[in-house]
Amino acid sequence: MTTTTFGRPKRSAADLLFDICNTVFLLVLLVLTLYPVLNTLAVSFNQAQDTVRDSTFLWPREFTTLNYSTLFQDGLIYHAFFISVARTLLGTVSSVFCTAMLAYTLSRKEYVLRGPISFIFIFTMYFSGGLIPTYMLIKNLHLYGTFWVYVIPGLIGAFNLIVMRSFMEGLPESLVESAQIDGATHFSIFLRIILPLSLPVIATIALFVAVGQWNSWFDTFLYNSSNINLSTLQYELMKKLQSANMSVGGTAESAFASSKNIQANIVTPASIRAAITVVATVPIIVVYPFLQKYFVTGLTLGGVKE
After folding, report:
1. Which candidate, 32, 104, 67, places its Cα nearest to that of 251?
2. DSSP 8-class letter at 9
3. CA 44: distance to chain centroid?
4. What is the pLDDT of residues 135-191, one digit of tens each?
5. Tens-digit pLDDT profile for residues 67-100
6. Domains of the chain
7. Three-state DSSP class for 5?
8. Residue pair 252/261 in contact by the 8 Å Cβ criterion
9. Cα separation of 40 and 72, whole Å?
10. Which pairs from 180-186 meet CB under 8 Å and 24+ separation?
């Protein structure tokens, strides 16, 4: 029998040693995880020339907002931000809804084409048509130079479809059968029963799709680079970074400014890169806490089978 002290089990030396090692390991892991984030944030608010001299720090030594003002000095960046938000919201909602509808259809055992259609989608995960055929398809569908090129091509994702279908196949069949006895159609069953029960997997897929939509810039480069009204935030930030890499410009107000003032108004690729990283990451960080509960649940789908 384990001896007790004040009603609590007495811990052995091995248990105490394990707790100490576990705590130390988690603290080291916490530092390694937070350091890149804090360093990037500090560099984005630090004076560029000071960053070039020594970039190893966790707090801005010479605080400045010049890096951010350089990013947002062009009014186009605000319109690009609006386009990115619009494509993320519309693309995520439409993709999750369409994928969920198809996943429900393929999860029905009475659907005779569920096998061939599932094979077609799985086949696309291993073999792709390539960039040129995709470009030609987009152009033939008259999506080139339009906003819908951000939404329609990503309506169905093969991986997301498989995850949703697997989750829906695990739902109790008796719920669907009882609803059908009451005269409900498949669309009513999908909206009123399947979707509410599939909230964890929907939140997980929604986060994946939203991050992909928000970070995407290559489709803008391919299909809307000549249309500034449809330019996205990530594409504009990419152009800013390329411009900073090619030519490190200053913002001195006159040629007679002092050397110290000139250095205070210089941005570098490293400082611009840090500011871009923060701007691109903050929206996702703000949204993630609201989906964290469902996201963790969704990641454990299929982990336990009864």
Report:
1. 67
2. E
3. 21
4. 999 999 999 989 999 999 989 989 999 999 988 888 888 888 888 888 888 889 999
5. 888 888 877 888 888 999 999 999 999 999 999 9
6. 4-72+247-299 (no CATH), 76-229 (1.10.3720.10)
7. strand
8. yes
9. 18
10. 186/104, 186/108
Q: Tokens at residue 244, please? A: 């900073």
Closest by alpha carbon to 71, among 288, 233, 301, 229? 233
User: Which pLDDT belongs to residue 305?
Assistant: 46
Residues paired with residue 9 on neighbouring β-strands, in sequence order: 4
Cβ atoms within 10 Å, residue 194: 22
Pairing of strands 8-9, 4-5: antiparallel
CB within 8 A of 195, min separation 6: which ones?
Answer: 100, 202
Record the tokens describing residue 34, joined without a space. Answer: 């937070």
Supply the DSSP symbol for 157. Answer: -
**Rounded Cα gap, residues 6 and 287, in angstroms:** 46
Residue 146 — left, alpha, or beta (φ > 0 → left; ψ -120 to 50 → alpha)?
Answer: beta
Per the listing, tokens 């001896």 go with 3
Which of 211, 191, 195 lies closest to 291 in space, CA to CA?
211
